[in-house]
Fold these 2 entries.
Entry 1:
Amino acid sequence: MSELKIQHILTLAELFTKGARYNFVPITTSSLGKSIRKSQQAASKHLMELEANGYVERLRSGRKVSVRITTKGHAEMIKISSVLKSSLESIPAYLEFKGTISSGMGEGAYYMSMKGYTKQFKTKLGYIPFPGTLNVKLKDKESIEAKRSLDAYDAIMVDGFSDGKRTYGWVKCYPAKVNNIDVALILLERTHHDDSIIELISKANIKKVAKLSTGSKITIRVPVSMKSNRD
Amino acid sequence: MSELKIQHILTLAELFTKGARYNFVPITTSSLGKSIRKSQQAASKHLMELEANGYVERLRSGRKVSVRITTKGHAEMIKISSVLKSSLESIPAYLEFKGTISSGMGEGAYYMSMKGYTKQFKTKLGYIPFPGTLNVKLKDKESIEAKRSLDAYDAIMVDGFSDGKRTYGWVKCYPAKVNNIDVALILLERTHHDDSIIELISKANIKKVAKLSTGSKITIRVPVSMKSNRD
DNA sequence: ATTACTATCTCACGAGTAC
DNA sequence: TGTACTCGTGAGATAGTAA
């Protein structure tokens, strides 16, 4: 009989809003029922149960009834509220990709070294990437799904260009971390890869700096803004 | 089908704690059931219903299932959490007394002018009260109950003393406001009043300053600490 | 007008179990 | 191991109504 029942939470919150913490406030079960979108009878039962469990006190003066929340009721609300608050605050704000290093250079290696791209990398990323991209084969569905959801987050957009002979597509860059090393996950407008491959670029040679070789398992973390509008 | 059901709140909070906001996290319905103190079947149903309403997404890889919270689910949790939080923050932190001015001076008038008390008032309240206390007859049960609950809150304690002939009891002072005028509600160790009478003291003549006369209705507000341990 | 009783209904939950 | 079905039970909600 000690724990606050889930269905009483909103009722108790409504009583707080009505100012019933320190003073007895007059209240009717029908108005309370309306506030919590339940029937008058439900509100009446809630009050009876809250009282039976020591979360509120009631005072009757003839027809009128006043309600006050007890310290126990106050403490219980604080508990619930902080549980919810802390569960919301415990969110790690990044997308995680797990995979293994794929053999060879990525298909983007050649293109990424073109002036039309490197000039933009320099201004937008702050560096010209090591010539050669790192291919990562994603291991699980979760990571492949994470790749799909990247679309919804802000990226650094490197525009496509033309060299007179042909045109080159845009590149979306997502700053990321691999073993605490700064890298960028890149999505190409035109790619031959399927969904299970991603490419990384970095200022230095990632394989060397992170001591990775073909087949190594890696985890990539892409920070995402808390204000995103995914879905 | 749009509103988050109350009984799903804790389940969703648990998913947040498990990090399921941005990434799909593998989870079993039985472990989730344990976390929310419900059965495996209940957890399974919660997930199905949360998914049906667009609060979570699920990903199946054979036997394993991963769960991710959608933006809609995130928004709904924020909504609930802030409703609870704001209901807790909306608490007016004072005890309210409603009553009418009682005729004549309070019984404390004479005693309160004694040096043994006035010296303490000067140091503890910061002033020597106007000679004469104001009696207030409380109107309703709520106010009488508020008077009883004063006991639990911090007061300025004016100690009793002896003048050789007899002893005088302590006086508890609660700083308060009447029509925005600073007063103090006093509780006497020895009183002839019943529970429905309270006495007020103030630096100046309250009746004059607040333009009150016998029979006037007044409201007294006594601020209380948020950290109290009433009940 | 109130509150709260009784009866009824719905649905949340857990047991058992199929897959 | 897993998930999720059916079904029985009872808690929670509402309707009707007494006081």
Entry 2:
Amino acid sequence: MPELPEVEVTRRSFADAIAGAVVDGVWLGKPLRWPLGVAPAALVGRRVQGVRRRGKYLLLDLDDGLLLLHLGMSGSLQFAPSLPPVGPHDHFELRTDRGVLRLHDPRRFGAAVYAAGEQDAVARKLLGGLGPEPLTEAFDPFVFHAGLRQRRAAIKQVLLAGDLVVGVGNIYASESLFLAGIRPTVRADRISRPRALRLHGAIRTVLSRALAVGGSTLKDFSNAQGQSGYFQLETMVYDRAGQPCRVCGAPIKALRQGQRSTFYCPVCQKP
DNA sequence: AGATGTCCCTGGAAGC
DNA sequence: TGCTTCCAGGGACATC
């Protein structure tokens, strides 16, 4: 579920509240994608210094080491002084003197992993291959274009791969390509410089807008305070197969790329 | 090295 | 109603 906007919205919804908290205990439910990698008791007494985000990972900096959290496809976090009893889909809790951080994840593609530091093997494996952050200066339009020129795969799949830019998932890839007027099936290396620059801008515009409205709540996403997002109300193409394009009225088309659904307007988006 | 397919897991919707 | 099949926001990994 969660792409960059949802993860960032989640981060902002509890980062200040948890900063400075001391860990009382760690509770584990059913196994997540990867093991925690440390004995839960070993984290007791450590202080949470802050919460950062890298791509779709949340990094909880501890005074010694860090916790990497990923929401997978169906994960969400809650943070509150106290929470109701855990349910069957709650699989991780970080209990602190300021409240409980709980990971709810029915599909369990998410993860909570401890790393001794950012150079730790597990941290490098998970974070090492990530591309630049789209909403920072690190995402350079000319470097982006140069990267596209070296890839023969369809542009939609190159965006999802996460090495030229991070955080763009299935929803925002379709939306960004619509805004840029580019058909998702176009080979990345066939995209001209002006179109690449337009796509670069479109990715920033779409992600910023989604962030501003709290992300997308397709099914059950909410931030750590339980609030929903609203971007799903203004998608131009995502999940709108057969419905009229909001710009030209042509029926939105759907196709599958790499086992994932893609949506586009056959008129507004050029091959 | 890059591209592609598979798999992890569960729940809900659609089809029969 | 009940069973089966398909699909869903991600991404590591194996294989070619």
